[in-house]
Structure to design on (88 residues):
């Protein structure tokens, strides 16, 4: 499954176009490697997503083409959540 589609289905990012923009800016890594929107993800991969001053690391638990809101949280598990200092 494509990275942008997984982010949308899992509701980590609300829209697929936004997921594409975030990944194209290099703010998402899969297993430590910067990923593009078209990168394929598989069960067991670790995603690190940077949202402004917050970095979330999640592990992919399952892949589905579509998921209801209640099922979306079962597609991943949060490994680490950290604040990034905004020092310039």
């Amino acid at each position: 499954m494509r990275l942008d589609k997984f982010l949308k289905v899992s509701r980590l990012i609300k829209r697929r176009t936004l997921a594409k923009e975030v990944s194209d800016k290099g703010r998402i890594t899969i297993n430590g490697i910067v990923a593009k929107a078209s990168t394929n993800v598989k069960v067991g991969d670790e995603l690190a997503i940077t949202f402004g001053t917050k970095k979330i690391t999640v592990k992919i638990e399952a892949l589905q083409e579509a998921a209801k809101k209640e099922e979306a949280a079962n597609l991943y598990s949060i490994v680490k959540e950290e604040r990034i200092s905004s020092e310039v």
Observations:
- The mean pLDDT is 90.
- The chain has one domain: 3-83.
- Strands lie at 28-30, 33-34, 46-51, 54-60, 76-83.
